[in-house]
Amino acid sequence: MVFIMIVLGMLSCKNTTTPDSTVGSSAEAPAAGQANVVDDESMKDVVKIAVGSPDHTTLVAALQQADLVNSLANAGPFTVFAPTNAAFDKLPAGTVDGLMKPDKKTDLQDILQYHVTTSALKTSFFKDGMTLGMVNGGNISFQVKDGKIMINNSATIVASVPASNGIVHVIDAVLLPPAK
Amino acid sequence: MTSNKFFTKSALLMLILITWSACKPRGIQQAISSDASGKVYVAPGTHDEFYNFVSGGFSGQMSVYGIPSGRLFRVIPVFSVDPEKGYGYSEESKPMLNTSHGMVPWDDLHHIALSVTDGIHDGRWVFGNANNTPRIARVDLTTFRTAEIIEIPNSAGNHSSPFITENSEYVVAGTRFSVPMDNGSTDVPISTYKDNFKGTVSFVKVDPSSGRMSIAFQILLPGVNFDLSRAGKGKSHGWFFFSCYNSEQANTLLEVNASQRDKDFILCVNWKKAEEYVNQGKGTKKKVRYAHNFYDEKKHMGTSTMETEVLVLDPKELADMVYMMPCPKSPHGCDTDPSGEFIVGSGKLAATMPVFSFTKIQQAIADKTYDGDYEGIPVLKYEAVLHGEVQKPGLGPLHTEFDANGNAYTSFFVSSEVVKWNVQSLQVLDRVPTYYSVGHLSVPGGPTKKPWGKYMIAYNKITKDRFLPTGPELSQSAQLYDISGDKMKLILDFPTIGEPHYAEAIPAELVAKNSVKFYKIEENENPWAAKGDDFARVERKGNEVHVYMTAIRSHFVPDNIEGVKLGDVVYFHVTNMEQDWDVPHGFAVKGANNAELLIMPGETQTLMWKPDRIGVFPMYCTDFCSALHQEMSGYIRISAPGSNVPIKFSTGDLGPEQ
Question: Terminus of chain B with fewer CB atoms < 10 Å: N or C?
Answer without folding.
Answer: N
